[in-house]
Amino acid sequence: MIPDHLDKGLSILFIGFNPSITSGETGHHYAYKGNRFWRILERSGLTPRLYDATEDGELLKLGYGFTNIVARPTKGIEDITKEEYAEGREILRKKLETYRPDIACFVGKGVYTQYSKRTKVQWGFQDDPIVKEIQEFVAPSSSGLVRMSMEEIVDIYVKLADFVAEKNGGQ
């Protein structure tokens, strides 16, 4: 099992589908070598440097946390059951209500549609959040399987970085 990195007062809680087998084995988020998550954070300006998956707990110092809608590691999202999503949806809502991050960033449209049960989803901030007062942001998955260029993905994450910088007084 891979531990969540949660704390009260987070700027962003990144929410994935579920851990990869590699993440499950190493105990670190976004650890699969083909995953672009850490490069996306650096290139978008969300982190001051390129972090490694083994440093995922260090991002709490930047105000960033990690969790997943489903805790069980799998080879792919096709291995997640409807029951796991239903249970994960409730667990995730309780985590959001308890920790109340400024922004819940769903790493993939599918993560958000599973959580919200909404079918029409655009990239970026969403209207009518499930947990009031928590901004919901939908970003592309960082999986190497995503059919978007790195530049397109980074551009969406830049919107998140700009929002956080503005909220923090333009720093």
From TrEMBL:
Q: Does the keyword Ubl conjugation apply?
A: no
Check the record and name the CDD domains matching this protein. Answer: UDG-F2_TDG_MUG
Stretches assigned to the Uracil-DNA glycosylase-like domain: 4-149
Q: Which UniProt keywords apply?
A: DNA damage, DNA repair, Hydrolase
| PANTHER family linked to this entry | G/T AND G/U MISMATCH-SPECIFIC DNA GLYCOSYLASE, G_T MISMATCH-SPECIFIC THYMINE DNA GLYCOSYLASE
In Swiss-Prot or TrEMBL terms, this protein is called G/U mismatch-specific DNA glycosylase
Whose protein is this, by species?
Answer: Paenibacillus silvae
Q: Which gene encodes it?
A: mug
